[in-house]
Design brief:
By secondary structure, the protein is of the alpha+beta class. The protein is built from 16 helices and 6 strands. A 4-stranded antiparallel beta sheet has the order 4-5-3-6, sandwiched between helices. A hairpin with a 5-residue loop joins strand 1 and strand 2. Helix 1 runs antiparallel to helix 2 and helix 13 packs across helix 14. It is elongated and about 90 Å long. The mean pLDDT is 86.
């Protein structure tokens, strides 16, 4: 029985290492080096080390490796430390995914790593103190009085990330990023449930399967996110805008109207012709930032996307048309400030077309877009004149 359990335990963890190895190869051989991708890569590598430590542990536990007091301690130290580090990296990853790839400062990362340091110190010192685990007279490993900390620390990181994500998911001002929040919120579900089962049936490798399933879920979600984003400006692309707009046109929100704003960069071709396409790309990135800065506020709902070329689209739900007009003016004002803020040798401006959807007289999505495009044409003529 012992040999069978050791064989299947090792087999399960080798399979998980294999799948994580594929993900790690794709991450580290890819060209995408965003902060979120780096943290996911660190998480995957740490989990590979954790599963390797689990194999070492089961070989000691099953007698494949001659058991001794130091080896029993080492096998447990590695597993608890690596799982705590993995939970720490998950928390960093979850926060950066929700904050548009904003990285943590070195000081913030140091403060957040304090629970991991505590777990490591408790594990390493267990040989002498026995606070988290110790070996009894029969040569068996026994949980110490502070063993619970080794469970609280990794699960604490995961639960904190999940709770924060669900709070953001249900926030009325966070509709555009709901899929990201749901992904992060659901991530700990499989590891927590299967981890609890392994705590009861500790010789059955439930946790490794749950952890790998969660990592694959996050990795595929991130890949879908990359597909849905415009690679240059990092706002939603046209296809995502179509999906979002169709959904919004189906159901009217109480006391809110649906508006479509098309933003076109004035004389953008002359910028490309005079200063080159690299400078033109820089201008588009700056303009997308100006649009996102204008689309703020918990009382309103905005979906910013690049429509193509030098055009952007904002799908907005607001109470009055005057708010949509104010938003258009705010976007224009923000764009005009770019030249002085960025030290550009040319000026930037945009024209904005606005259309309001009438739920009592439904029209097709293309017709709705055409209305905004028609208003944009009028605004461009006014700006040119």
């Amino acid at each position: 029985f012992i040999l069978d359990y050791v064989f299947f335990y090792i087999q399960a963890h080798l399979a998980c290492i294999f799948f994580l190895g594929i993900i790690a190869f794709k991450i580290f051989s890819g060209v995408n080096k965003q902060v979120t991708v780096v943290y996911l890569g660190n998480l995957v590598m740490d989990l590979i080390l954790y599963f390797t430590a689990e194999i070492f542990w089961v070989m000691v536990d099953g007698g494949i490796v001659t058991s001794s007091k130091p080896l029993l301690y080492l096998s447990n130290i590695f597993t608890y430390v690596f799982i705590s580090v993995a939970a720490y990296y998950w928390f960093l990853l979850s926060e950066t995914m929700q904050s548009e790839n904003t990285d943590f400062s070195d000081m913030s990362k140091m403060i957040l790593s304090i629970p991991v340091i505590i777990a490591a110190v408790l594990c390493v010192s267990a040989y002498r103190t026995g606070l988290v685990f110790y070996i009894n007279e029969s040569g068996e490993l026994v949980n110490g009085k502070f063993y619970f900390l080794l469970m609280v620390i990794p699960f604490g990181y995961a639960i904190a990330a999940s709770v924060k994500a669900f709070i953001r998911f249900f926030s009325k001002g966070k509709y555009a990023q709901r899929e990201i929040y749901l992904t992060i919120g659901l991530f700990p579900v499989a590891p927590l449930i299967l981890g609890a089962l392994q705590a009861i049936y500790w010789r059955i490798p439930f946790l490794c399967y749950g952890t790998v399933a969660a990592v694959i879920y996050v990795y595929t979600s991130m890949q879908e996110s990359l597909i849905s984003l415009d690679p240059l400006t990092q706002v939603n692309n046209r296809n995502q805008m179509y999906k979002y707009l169709i959904n919004k046109m189906k159901k009217e929100e109480q006391e809110l109207s649906l508006f479509l704003l098309i933003i076109d960069v004035d004389k953008f071709k002359s910028i490309n012709d005079t200063y080159g396409h690299v400078e033109g790309d820089k201008a588009l990135v700056c303009i997308s930032g100006a649009i996102k800065n204008a689309c703020q506020g918990p009382r309103n709902r905005f979906f910013v996307s690049r429509y193509g070329g030098d055009e952007f689209v904002v799908v907005a739900e607001m109470a009055y048309r005057a708010e949509a007009t104010w938003l258009a003016e705010q976007i224009s004002s923000n764009v005009k400030k770019i030249s002085s803020q960025e030290g550009l040798s040319y000026s930037l401006s945009v024209s904005v077309g606005i259309a309001q959807y009438d739920y009592s007289q439904p029209i097709s999505m293309q017709s709705f877009i055409a209305r905004a495009d028609s208003d944009l044409y009028k605004q461009k003529k006014l700006n040119a004149g």
